[in-house]
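wait is this the right file?? whatever heres the structure
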């Protein structure tokens, strides 16, 4: 009879140290910031020497235990090598690039740990790795490469297996984490209805897992992905505003006594943006009494002021210079600009927000420079990043210089952030510009003004108007009747086509909707 080799995790056994055998990852590995490679089955007879040889042969990073369940009976099959390579892509590229804007231990920690012990999560990470590889090829101009089809097939297969294995999961917290991965997969695939199903399931699971000590991180991530769905709202699966939960637990978390890190600051700010958009839509649809919505807006503004004062304390020694510091400034400028625009009135009211629009673009450009200097350099994120704020500017700002700058930037960065494709957003903005009678400016554009250092507490003490290097002098303004009020999109990712319904302004003084115009763009 072969002797048993021990019961510690693969990493500790190779290192010849005592393992605490915590599941799914041992605390010794976590404390020493090592990758815990999981546990072999209880009846495994693999010795330490065999483990060392197998890991050397494997040559990739991942939960090694999954590749060694049949060792040493046979060599790794091609499918096992493919799987570990895809996990390696997720671990080394997808998760870190997603966390490059705002720190998130969900993608870089929690989901990786669950992949060790949950087959459904394992296959979900493989699907994301395959989709990341496909996007990398496309972003490098290799869209016709046969490997694109291979990675799409692997993504489809692993997504189907993740859904199948999910039926055996019973723990609400683990199911919630899995649902976030499934949302991200379907976002990248362009399966909007399925994405909405997973988002809805996530909200339901969050309620079931309420009180679970580990649910906070997943709940915060659900809020970020929900904000992404809210801003995208594709016409075949429009965002269900009337059924949207208020995510009270996240709001309470946001009202903590102090901000301790940028992850907390970003989550709180995203929560405020989401609440504003929901309240703004409710006012427009008249779904609740106007007085209640006024109170909701008042509460949002008060929470924003509180957040700004906490940020002033958190950054009392100045911002750290990391990308997250610029990320919160980007979304703060977006929210302050939306509040300054007010809900009602003609679309020409946006012409008074040049300072806000320029600040948003300057923050986005600075953020791109900051992440370009870091590893990994990847044009993909599963969470909201810079595309949403830039699309708002490209849609609402009618100054031809700034609008042209945004469209050219979106075309050049070739990014995907969950549901949002930068080149697709660029073409919708470009078509909007054409419909409104403007032309994209070519050649060199004037530089933007440096990002003004406005103290956090100053935003609430006076009516702040961010500085701008631009003016309307000598610029012909788009007449109200020619302006696009809203855009509704139907996105077909396989054909890279967007069918757009443009809802025009009526041209009156109160901002009523006019006629519609249908167009298609490709990206």
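ok assuming it is, sequence goes like this
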């Amino acid at each position: 009879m072969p002797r048993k080799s021990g019961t510690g995790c693969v990493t500790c056994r190779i290192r010849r140290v005592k393992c605490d055998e915590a599941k799914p990852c041992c605390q010794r590995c976590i404390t020493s910031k090592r990758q815990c490679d999981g546990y072999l089955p209880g009846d495994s007879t693999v010795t330490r020497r065999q483990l060392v040889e197998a890991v050397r042969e494997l040559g990739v990073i991942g939960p090694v235990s999954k590749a060694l369940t049949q060792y040493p009976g046979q060599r790794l099959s091609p499918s096992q090598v493919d799987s570990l390579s895809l996990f390696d892509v997720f671990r080394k590229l997808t998760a870190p690039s997603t966390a490059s804007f705002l720190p998130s231990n969900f993608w870089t920690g929690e989901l990786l740990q669950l992949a060790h012990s949950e087959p459904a999560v394992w296959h979900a990470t493989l699907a994301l790795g395959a989709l990341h590889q496909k996007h990398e090829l496309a972003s490098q101009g290799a869209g016709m490469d046969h490997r694109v089809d291979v990675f799409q097939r692997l993504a489809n297969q692993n997504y189907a297996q993740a859904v199948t294995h999910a039926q055996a999961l019973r723990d609400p917290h683990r199911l919630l984490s899995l649902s976030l991965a499934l949302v991200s997969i379907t976002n990248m695939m362009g399966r909007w209805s399925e994405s909405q199903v997973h988002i809805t399931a996530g909200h339901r699971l969050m309620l079931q897992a309420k009180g679970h000590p580990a649910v906070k991180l997943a709940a915060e991530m659900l809020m970020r992905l929900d904000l992404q769905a809210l801003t995208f709202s594709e016409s075949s699966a429009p965002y269900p505003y009337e059924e949207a939960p208020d995510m009270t637990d996240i709001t309470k978390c946001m009202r903590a006594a102090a901000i301790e890190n940028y992850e907390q600051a970003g989550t709180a700010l995203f929560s405020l943006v989401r609440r504003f958009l929901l309240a703004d839509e409710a006012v427009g649809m008249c779904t609740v009494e106007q007085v209640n919505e006024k109170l909701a807006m008042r509460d949002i503004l008060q929470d924003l002021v509180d957040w700004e004062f906490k940020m002033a304390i958190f950054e009392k020694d100045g911002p750290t210079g990391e990308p997250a510091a610029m990320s919160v400034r980007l979304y703060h400028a977006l929210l302050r600009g939306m509040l300054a625009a007010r809900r009602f009135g003609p679309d020409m009211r946006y012409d008074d927000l040049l300072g806000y629009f320029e600040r948003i673009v300057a923050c986005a450009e600075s953020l791109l420079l900051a992440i370009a200097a870091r590893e990994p350099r990847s044009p993909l994120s599963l969470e909201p990043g810079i595309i949403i704020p830039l699309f708002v500017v490209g849609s609402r700002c009618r100054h031809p210089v700034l609008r042209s700058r945004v469209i050219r930037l979106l075309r050049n960065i070739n990014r995907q952030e969950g549901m949002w494709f930068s080149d697709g957003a660029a073409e919708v903005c470009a078509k909007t510009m054409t419909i409104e009678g403007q032309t994209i400016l070519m050649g060199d554009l004037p530089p933007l003004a440096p990002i003004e250092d406005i103290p956090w507490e100053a935003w609430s003490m006076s009516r702040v108007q961010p500085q701008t290097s631009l003016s309307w002098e000598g610029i012909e303004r788009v007449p109200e009747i020619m302006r696009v009020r809203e855009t509704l999109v139907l996105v077909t990712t396989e054909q890279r086509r967007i069918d757009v319904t443009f809802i025009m302004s009526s041209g009156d003084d109160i901002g009523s909707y006019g006629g519609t115009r249908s167009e298609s763009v490709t990206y």
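Residues 246-310 form one domain. so i think its the right one actually
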